[in-house]
């Protein structure tokens, strides 16, 4: 199957190829991931997602098309809602920074495919600078917000597994070009005075994420190929929407332990 911008997100493409977003879905809930892959569960985009897409579409040169297919970003009088005026302000701020714009100067939405750990993969890069770098654009709530996972501090990069995303991108580009390129996250946040930075992800961090993926992929492949049943997490939107009661429970069963 040859991937294009038109069919990249299609059900057929999602069934034929793994992507980082699929892996993150599998890590969240296998049943949810399979429902999305097969087109049985479609999520309505949230405002934060649409703000990010607004900025993304500007840089890829498709902002007018984005506006046409997302009428919900407009008021009844045809003007932009305040959240998307903020997106316009973010774009204006980014234009003032030479390094950020340099990182975003590469080829936009470049698609490549490859094979990792026995599965076919697809990637789509925000800014691909041949022979130099792979750049992924992220619009986040707060750039320097710290969270905790199992007692360890982590940035938005680790929390959202963006380092895993770029690890896969780097490997697929290496397979297609023979070059191991630097991986950069060009990030901006949504504060009244947006913070922004271009973050180089160390190669050892990328390698660690790819190595960790090695142990998970055989099971994900089995689930996707229907060799084993997909497990339900029981708490995500999909599981709640499709829940079928099978037995009585006790009060202690209502307490979910992480």
State the CATH class.
Answer: Alpha Beta
Helix share, percent: 40-55%
| Backbone shape | globular
Number of helices: 11
CATH-derived architecture: Alpha-Beta Complex
Gyration radius from CA atoms, angstroms = 20 Å
Percentage of residues in DSSP E strands? 15-25%
- Give helix and strand order, one letter per element, not per position: HHHHHHHEEEEEEHHEEHH
What do you see in this structure?
- The protein has 258 residues and is an alpha+beta fold.
- The protein has a single domain, classed as Lambda Exonuclease, Chain A (Alpha-Beta Complex), CATH 3.90.320.
- It has helices spanning 11-16, 20-28, 30-37, 47-60, 63-69, 82-95, 98-103, 156-159, 162-177, 203-224, 237-241; strands at residues 110-116, 119-125, 127-129, 133-140, 147-149, 152-154, 182-189, 196-200.
- The protein has a four-stranded mixed β-sheet with strand order 3-4-7-8. A two-stranded antiparallel ribbon has the order 1-2. A two-stranded antiparallel sheet has the order 5-6.
- Strand 7 (182-189) and strand 8 (196-200) form a beta hairpin.
- Helix 2 runs antiparallel to helix 3, helix 4 (47-60) packs parallel to helix 6 and helix 9 crosses helix 10 (203-224).
- The model has no long low-confidence stretch (mean pLDDT 94).
